[in-house]
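Notes from the 1:1 (GR / supervisor)

We went over the backlog. Supervisor wanted to see one worked example end to end before approving the batch request, so GR pasted a single chain during the call. The sequence is below; no edits were made to it. Supervisor asked that the structure be written out right there so they could see what the output format looks like.
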Amino acid sequence: MDGIMKNGQGEAVKPSGFAPSDIVGALAINPRYAQERCWVFGSSLPLDGEDPRLRALLAEFFAGWASHGAPLCGRWQVWEQYFLLIISEPDGTALSGCSLDSMQQAIMQIETAMGTQLLDSSRIFFRNPDGIVQMVNRSEFKVLAQTGEIDEETPVFDTTLSRVGDFAEGKFEKPLGQSWHAQLYRNARRQMVS
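Structure output shown during the call:
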């Protein structure tokens, strides 16, 4: 179970089960979520939201997450085993550079502890015909495009999203041909013909 973490006076972790599919529900409860910041970290290896190491590192991060000394609140979720989502709470303190720096430090600690990479934005995530999320680098993506193993209907994930509302609007997972990945795909297909 993943959860909401509140910092400040040593408040306990309160599980919430907050997943992209739950975002529509969260928006119905509090429409202010739509404009809140979110970060999607794609993992090079599968993550387990129940792993005590991951939970402890995230609890430590959220317990100390602050903006100019004022506590921040947020939620986290491991989704599809490859995506660590962090969402800021709409009723919290405004984010600052120092709060973002502390998040990056926490993500680096998670990388080390879990033996994975989360900050490498060069990876591409897609859903294979069996419905399983897969991760490839850009050169592997090019080969998949050229061999026809992926096409413009292949579902891809956009880890560049930065607004909670984007999830509710279906922008996180969509057909390759409707995403920024389409240009990479078309370039790879053109190179095959040349």
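Supervisor's comment: Residues 13 and 127 are 32 Å apart (CA to CA).
Batch request approved.
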